What we know:
Order of helices and strands: EHEHEEEHEEEEEE
Shape: globular
Strand order of the largest sheet: 3-2-1-9-10-11
CATH class: Alpha Beta
Radius of gyration: 15 Å
Number of helices: 3
Oligomer: single chain
Helix content: 10-25%
CATH topology: Purple Acid Phosphatase, chain A, domain 2
Distance between the termini: 27 Å
CATH architecture: 4-Layer Sandwich
Structural class: alpha/beta
Amino acid sequence: MDNKKILVLSDTHGRITTLKTVLAWANERIQPNDTISAAVFLGDGISDLRPAADAAGFSSNWALVRGNNDYGHSTPESAVFDLGEHHFFMCHGHRHGLYGGYHSIIAAARNNGANAALFGHSHVPAFKNADGILLINPGSVGIPRSKIGASFAIIECITGEPLQVEFWGINDGEIRKLNI
């Protein structure tokens, strides 16, 4: 049985110390120690990735999209990728009217043949199955807008099984599993 995990991050907004804490934690979970095999960044802090990853010694395959605050970056606003039998659509979310519902992002995911949509922008973690599309927002590593604080997600892809999502919080340099 093939088992892979994706680290999903968004909205660091210059909070490199917190991002470095997350990447150091994730570094312990990269193969062969565990099964993190890719990392996703959903925008608003692309410039934070290299300094934090270098400081944490984190090296992984990255899938990136830019957000509405990633000025001067030529990174695309949306992308698709496959991991195992799962097809992911990813974007920052600012072009999809998230505060009025998920209709636009569901349509974008479906139009790209995806069974999951990864997005940020709202700074609030979310996990929902809507019209057959799994919607996953990891929250914000840098400027959270929810009571749970800074957060990120790990998506587990096991061949023949539905995606499994875990949310993790960061508080005073400590990382803990969240119940969302």
